[in-house]
Specification:
The protein has 169 residues and is an alpha+beta fold. It has one domain (8-167): Nuclear Transport Factor 2, Chain: A (Roll), CATH 3.10.450. It has three helices and six strands, in the order H-H-E-E-H-E-E-E-E. The protein is globular.
Length: 169
Protein backbone atom coordinates (compact mmCIF):
# COMPACT_ATOMS: atom_id res chain seq x y z
CA UNK A 1 0.00 0.00 0.00
CA UNK A 2 1.46 3.33 -1.04
CA UNK A 3 1.82 5.86 1.74
CA UNK A 4 0.45 9.33 1.24
CA UNK A 5 1.84 12.59 2.54
CA UNK A 6 0.12 13.62 5.73
CA UNK A 7 0.65 17.29 5.10
CA UNK A 8 1.97 19.70 2.55
CA UNK A 9 4.83 20.19 5.04
CA UNK A 10 5.97 16.60 4.49
CA UNK A 11 6.23 17.24 0.77
CA UNK A 12 8.06 20.55 1.37
CA UNK A 13 10.58 18.75 3.59
CA UNK A 14 11.31 16.17 0.87
CA UNK A 15 11.68 18.91 -1.75
CA UNK A 16 14.02 20.88 0.52
CA UNK A 17 16.22 17.83 1.06
CA UNK A 18 16.31 17.12 -2.67
CA UNK A 19 17.26 20.72 -3.46
CA UNK A 20 20.10 20.57 -0.91
CA UNK A 21 21.26 17.24 -2.37
CA UNK A 22 21.36 18.79 -5.84
CA UNK A 23 23.48 21.68 -4.56
CA UNK A 24 25.98 19.07 -3.34
CA UNK A 25 25.96 17.34 -6.71
CA UNK A 26 26.64 20.70 -8.43
CA UNK A 27 29.48 21.31 -5.95
CA UNK A 28 31.10 17.99 -6.93
CA UNK A 29 30.68 18.67 -10.63
CA UNK A 30 32.10 22.18 -10.23
CA UNK A 31 35.21 20.93 -8.45
CA UNK A 32 35.82 17.95 -10.72
CA UNK A 33 35.21 19.88 -13.93
CA UNK A 34 37.08 22.97 -12.59
CA UNK A 35 34.04 25.17 -13.23
CA UNK A 36 34.47 28.41 -11.29
CA UNK A 37 31.05 29.82 -12.20
CA UNK A 38 29.25 26.68 -11.04
CA UNK A 39 31.33 26.49 -7.86
CA UNK A 40 30.44 30.10 -6.99
CA UNK A 41 26.75 29.31 -7.49
CA UNK A 42 26.56 26.82 -4.59
CA UNK A 43 27.55 29.36 -1.93
CA UNK A 44 25.71 32.38 -0.53
CA UNK A 45 27.72 35.59 -1.08
CA UNK A 46 28.70 35.83 2.62
CA UNK A 47 29.35 32.09 3.10
CA UNK A 48 32.34 30.73 4.99
CA UNK A 49 34.43 27.70 4.01
CA UNK A 50 37.00 25.85 6.10
CA UNK A 51 38.81 23.32 3.93
CA UNK A 52 41.78 23.03 6.28
CA UNK A 53 44.38 24.54 3.97
CA UNK A 54 41.88 27.34 3.34
CA UNK A 55 39.70 28.92 6.02
CA UNK A 56 37.75 32.06 5.14
CA UNK A 57 35.10 33.55 2.89
CA UNK A 58 33.74 31.26 0.20
CA UNK A 59 34.08 34.14 -2.26
CA UNK A 60 37.85 33.87 -1.68
CA UNK A 61 37.79 30.07 -1.49
CA UNK A 62 36.36 29.66 -4.99
CA UNK A 63 39.26 31.28 -6.92
CA UNK A 64 41.77 29.71 -4.51
CA UNK A 65 40.23 26.27 -5.11
CA UNK A 66 40.15 26.67 -8.89
CA UNK A 67 43.82 27.73 -8.87
CA UNK A 68 44.75 24.68 -6.75
CA UNK A 69 42.79 22.37 -9.04
CA UNK A 70 44.50 23.73 -12.15
CA UNK A 71 48.03 23.89 -10.77
CA UNK A 72 48.29 20.98 -8.34
CA UNK A 73 46.03 18.26 -9.77
CA UNK A 74 45.54 16.62 -13.13
CA UNK A 75 42.19 15.09 -12.13
CA UNK A 76 39.81 14.88 -9.20
CA UNK A 77 36.66 12.94 -8.48
CA UNK A 78 34.31 13.38 -5.52
CA UNK A 79 31.71 10.87 -4.38
CA UNK A 80 28.98 11.68 -1.86
CA UNK A 81 27.76 8.78 0.24
CA UNK A 82 25.77 8.93 3.45
CA UNK A 83 23.95 12.20 3.89
CA UNK A 84 21.99 13.50 6.82
CA UNK A 85 20.00 16.69 6.21
CA UNK A 86 18.12 18.20 9.13
CA UNK A 87 15.88 21.02 7.94
CA UNK A 88 14.86 23.65 10.47
CA UNK A 89 12.79 26.28 8.66
CA UNK A 90 15.09 28.16 6.29
CA UNK A 91 18.21 26.54 7.74
CA UNK A 92 19.50 23.02 7.35
CA UNK A 93 22.28 21.28 9.21
CA UNK A 94 23.96 18.69 7.04
CA UNK A 95 26.60 16.01 7.13
CA UNK A 96 27.70 14.54 3.79
CA UNK A 97 30.23 11.70 3.76
CA UNK A 98 32.67 11.83 0.86
CA UNK A 99 35.46 9.93 -0.81
CA UNK A 100 37.65 12.17 -2.94
CA UNK A 101 40.34 11.14 -5.39
CA UNK A 102 43.07 13.60 -6.38
CA UNK A 103 45.53 12.82 -9.15
CA UNK A 104 48.84 14.70 -9.22
CA UNK A 105 52.51 14.27 -10.04
CA UNK A 106 55.44 14.21 -7.65
CA UNK A 107 58.95 14.13 -9.09
CA UNK A 108 57.50 13.19 -12.48
CA UNK A 109 55.60 10.20 -11.11
CA UNK A 110 51.78 10.12 -11.10
CA UNK A 111 50.15 9.67 -7.69
CA UNK A 112 46.65 9.32 -6.28
CA UNK A 113 45.68 10.89 -2.99
CA UNK A 114 42.45 9.41 -1.69
CA UNK A 115 40.62 10.95 1.24
CA UNK A 116 37.52 10.02 3.14
CA UNK A 117 35.69 12.51 5.26
CA UNK A 118 32.63 14.64 5.74
CA UNK A 119 31.29 18.00 4.72
CA UNK A 120 29.68 19.43 7.85
CA UNK A 121 27.51 22.23 6.52
CA UNK A 122 24.92 24.80 7.35
CA UNK A 123 22.68 25.54 4.39
CA UNK A 124 20.28 28.45 4.25
CA UNK A 125 17.32 29.14 2.01
CA UNK A 126 17.39 32.75 0.87
CA UNK A 127 15.14 34.19 -1.81
CA UNK A 128 13.80 30.66 -2.26
CA UNK A 129 17.22 29.07 -2.96
CA UNK A 130 19.17 26.67 -0.79
CA UNK A 131 22.93 27.32 -0.77
CA UNK A 132 25.87 26.70 1.52
CA UNK A 133 26.20 29.31 4.28
CA UNK A 134 29.01 27.62 6.20
CA UNK A 135 31.13 24.56 5.46
CA UNK A 136 33.80 22.69 7.38
CA UNK A 137 35.60 19.78 5.75
CA UNK A 138 36.43 17.01 8.23
CA UNK A 139 39.02 14.50 6.97
CA UNK A 140 38.67 11.10 8.62
CA UNK A 141 41.43 9.35 6.66
CA UNK A 142 43.68 9.72 3.62
CA UNK A 143 46.31 7.80 1.71
CA UNK A 144 48.67 8.30 -1.22
CA UNK A 145 49.43 5.64 -3.84
CA UNK A 146 51.74 5.46 -6.83
CA UNK A 147 49.91 5.05 -10.13
CA UNK A 148 50.54 2.44 -12.79
CA UNK A 149 49.07 3.72 -16.05
CA UNK A 150 46.71 1.46 -18.03
CA UNK A 151 46.12 1.97 -21.74
CA UNK A 152 43.29 4.51 -21.96
CA UNK A 153 43.48 5.14 -25.70
CA UNK A 154 40.06 3.58 -26.40
CA UNK A 155 38.21 5.36 -23.58
CA UNK A 156 36.17 8.54 -23.53
CA UNK A 157 38.16 10.59 -21.07
CA UNK A 158 36.71 13.21 -18.76
CA UNK A 159 37.63 16.83 -19.36
CA UNK A 160 38.20 19.40 -16.65
CA UNK A 161 36.16 22.09 -18.38
CA UNK A 162 32.71 22.83 -19.78
CA UNK A 163 33.72 20.79 -22.85
CA UNK A 164 33.20 17.63 -20.76
CA UNK A 165 30.44 15.32 -21.99
CA UNK A 166 28.29 16.09 -18.88
CA UNK A 167 27.67 19.63 -20.15
CA UNK A 168 26.25 18.51 -23.48
CA UNK A 169 22.49 18.11 -23.81
Amino acid sequence: MASEFKTEGDLRLLLDKQEIHEVMMRYCRAVDRVDEELLSSVYHPDALDNHGLFNGKASDFVPWCIKQLREAYTATQHFIGNELIEVDGDRAYCEFYFVAYHRYERKGEPRHMTAGGRYVDRFERRAGQWKIAERTVVVDWQRVDRVHEPDASQLTLGLRSRQDLAYRR
